[in-house]
Amino acid sequence: MTAQTMNVPAYAAPAAGAPLARTTIERRPVGASDVLIDVKYAGICHSDIHQARDGWGEGIFPMVPGHEIAGVVAEVGADVTRFNVGDRVGVGCMVDSCRECENCKAGLEQYCAQGNIQTYNALDKEGRPTYGGYSTRIVVDEAFTLRIPDGLSLDVAAPLLCAGITTYSPLAHWNAGPGKKVAVVGLGGLGHMAVKIAHAMGAEVTVLSQSLRKKDDGLRLGADHYYSTSDDATFEQLAGSLDLVVSTVSAPLPLDKYLGLLKTDGAFVNVGAPEEPVSLNLFSLILGRRSLAGSGIGGIQETQEMLDFCAEHGLGAEIELISADQINEAYERVLASDVRYRFVIDAGTI
């Protein structure tokens, strides 16, 4: 085992809102239950931008974002049993939890009662700041390391560690499948995976987007229908017709209009997280016994299930591969919705 801390190259935001720049960070020694991973690819998630710019509250700086990590095992600790050097692995949004609460014992580490430890912008159990995947190496406990199936190339697998599981989890929980009408709000990094996964699950899939400019893409990815939400006729035409709506957008929506799309007992589930508060008229829920819900990522077991499902159905992310010196430009393009559909950093360029 590596007994010493390691200095590795990374890209970090030195302060809230500051451009990311190349730097060197310290990784902890490889412990008995740890896996040392050579990062090959790291996806850029909109939540990286929120956190690097203090959009969700005060962050820990310098901050190395990145929780869509795909790589290869370089070293394993003495007690590691699930992985060997050379294995293809992934790391998602969390790297530890209390492991003792009811949720953790149920495989719901993402809802750990003590709060899970995030891959970056958090403190580990030793009080050290965590640093994410915009780096060349990372040390992770094997219990929070995922196996990437051979059927997925590492570059298109990386975004599955957040975008894939964030959409798979609610689709599975609310039973998307044959006979269910599912709508996805927004065709971006999360939305395009929601469409692919819901289609593979057998649901009838509708995309609700601000415009029709991505309609051809949406239909190609598996949508059966595609509507513009800027057209009020959309809400009239689809009123009371949907079983499940999954919103992937990170801007406030007119919730009453969207809740009106649901059948009785339908659910509107938020996976996008706006920085601003939202409001609604509770009669939008009461009159149709509808549900307004939220969903985070998945637990480790469910994340592995998602990876296996995506490999079985050939569901890699649609990506644009970039070099590390393009990260700041990529952030601006994400904010402008100018990516189809996920930026992935080639960690070899860090």
Automatic annotation (TrEMBL):
Looking up InterPro entries in the UniProt record yields: ADH-like_C, ADH-like_N, ADH_Zn_CS, CAD-like, ER, GroES-like_sf, NAD(P)-bd_dom_sf
Q: Which residues form the Enoyl reductase (ER) domain?
A: 17-345
Q: Please give the SMART domains that the UniProt record associates with this protein.
A: PKS_ER
Pfam hit, one: ADH_zinc_N
CDD domains in alphabetical order? CAD1 (cd05283)
Q: What GO molecular-function term can you cite, just one?
A: zinc ion binding
- Top-rank taxon: Bacteria
SUPFAM superfamilies hit by this protein: GroES-like, NAD(P)-binding Rossmann-fold domains
Q: Quote the EC number.
A: 1.1.1.2
Query: Which family does the similarity line name?
Result: Belongs to the zinc-containing alcohol dehydrogenase family.
Protein name stated in the entry: alcohol dehydrogenase (NADP(+))
Q: Which organism is it from?
A: Streptomyces alboflavus
Q: Which gene encodes it?
A: yahK
